[in-house]
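Please complete every field before forwarding. Incomplete forms are returned to the sender.

SECTION A: IDENTIFIERS
Entry label: holo-400
Bound molecule: pyridoxal-5'-phosphate
Molecule representation: SMILES string

SECTION B: INPUTS
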Amino acid sequence: MTQAFLEHIRDTLEQIEVDGLYKRERLIAGAQGARVNVRQNGHERSMINLCANNYLGLADHPDIKRSARDAIDEFGFGMASVRFICGAQTLHRELEHTIARYLGKDDAILFAACFDANGGVFETLLGPEDAVISDSLNHASIIDGVRLCKAKRYRFANSDMDGLEDQLKQAQADGARFKLVVTDGVFSMDGYVANLPDICALADKYGAMVLVDDCHATGHLGPEGRGTPALTGVGQAVDIVTGTFGKTLGGGMGGFIAAAQPVIDLLRQRARPYLFSNSLAPTVAAGSLKAIAIAEQADDLRERLQNHTRRFRDSLGEAGFELLPGETPIIPVMTHEAPLAQRLAAALDERGVYVAGFFFPVVPKGKARIRTQMSAALSEQDVDDAIAAFIDAGRATGLI
Ligand SMILES: *Cc1c(COP(=O)(O)O)cnc(C)c1O
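SECTION C: PREDICTED COMPLEX
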């Protein structure tokens, strides 16, 4: 490697630092849970965790861990193969059938991550004659997946239904053969649910299909945790669902696409991240299977999650914090200015609360925030302690 190249890379890193965008990873010494042992400067501290996607608290669930351990004995540690060569176990098919049934679709196909599912879905299903119409706040993996496909791209401002209709009209005027509207089910930086009833109605009006990426919903939102289509009552009007096992459903890893049989069949033939990447590890497949079984029955955990959400929202709102409105367990606490978000995060850290600040370019300039996420793993005492810490830190930093 030449000095010139390394110099160039160092300059880039320095610029990231100067811009205040350098991300430093904090280390957890132990399992993901309501409290985590955070290792800092050689010593460990137990902190209340408000920044995991561990909505139902399944990431350290004893039954899921047991399923994963049992799977090692029965199915081994690794597959050492892509699915179509010799990497498909009965376990993988069972997981596909189970997630498909859970979401009310014919079939499903597994990927190493939802990032890969979104990376493979558009290129496989759409050609240059087609149109993909995408919400401007969609996840990075959708943006990249759309870039990889040859369909004509249309974009509408976040949740702007007039904008969506304009783009559908434009796609129609441009002579699109097939049109696919794409949205996140939950916009994870802001914590609100996509307007699926209007999206589906507009799609229907213009003969378009709908794809929902439900990563921040499957397992904890809607009846039995069936996600935003079930929550918003649109059900089968959503044609394709992409999602993850890396959040609510055990938080291990792995993505999936659920849809009509021919769609899944074609993805199995053509989706590149599926064809050219290793199978999910048996531990992960077995743990995810158990997670779906638990999530389906977990009305108690969903209620607990909702109670925590209400408690945290109400208390912080009353204390004078500015929160973004919404009904999901994602509760963004707005600071607007990035340095204030950093100071608040540091003050919360001192008070034993583990949070993450978000600023430009992850969110727009002037919209810096601390994004908090509730979990059913938290006790009421944890939530109350976190509220007290927020109020104290808010006063110490002059935010409230
Ligand atoms: C987390 C997330 C992904 C990525 O999921 P992985 O399985 O971790 O790759 C994709 N889309 C959305 C909306 C997400 O929130």
